[in-house]
């Protein structure tokens, strides 16, 4: 490795905010000093997903620069969820609320006020279908989340009015896809009218959908992933209630990062 490469400033590396934060904490000024460290330890209190992403990003940076790190990148061991949310939607949400209030109150504050019965009925009329009871019960508690609030997958939980808008914006043809690309009980199609988007990414092209037209062996109301740029249509959860429990599990393990707004007033 040339002296020029070793003397590259840490500040000049094109890395994410989290990775930059880690490098600053290590007290090194150059790439050479970073490579001389016997270990690069990612903080144990960082969410699991973020820790893995940072570790992977460092390896990518080293590869792009054509250097080899002889030390060890120490990623914290995965955290296991200590609590489960079970029962109907009301019971599951009560369990989640208690945990969020104690651990991430600002994440809880990003859930919107309830949707009215009239708003839910109007959306069903516009969609021309009946939504699953567990999903409607949650809407009567919270009408989705604020924009960019973290939920499972690629984005935020939509309000019921946004669900109608997102449904109109989804495009695709009911063309067959490889059977292996469809989850168990999910129709092997690129697009199906029975898929109702309830979670949308910031870029507006990635969704979690309620599946109201499952394949044989599937369950009406199951949750599938729909990504415009990918033919895969995997099964994510058996119901909205199970999706909510998955949110709780990922919040506890750090797979879902709820820490971003923890310091806000």
Characterization of this structure:
- The protein is an alpha+beta fold and 265 residues long.
- It is built from 10 helices and 7 strands.
- The chain has helices spanning 3-6, 17-25, 31-35, 48-65, 89-103, 105-109, 117-127, 133-139, 160-169, 240-253; strands at residues 39-41, 72-74, 155-157, 195-201, 206-211, 222-227, 235-237.
- The strands form 2 sheets. Strands 3-4-5-6-7 form a 5-stranded antiparallel sheet.
- Helix 5 (89-103) packs parallel to helix 10 (240-253) and helix 7 (117-127) packs parallel to helix 9.
- The model has no long low-confidence stretch (mean pLDDT 92).
> Secondary-structure element order, as H and E?
HHHEHEHHHHEHEEEEH
Summarize the amount of helix as a percent range: 25-40%
- How many strands, what sense, and barrel or not for the largest sheet? 5 strands, antiparallel
Task: Report the portion of residues in β strands.
Answer: 5-15%
Mean pLDDT: 92
Low-confidence stretches: none
Structure annotation, total helices: 10
The overall strand count is 7
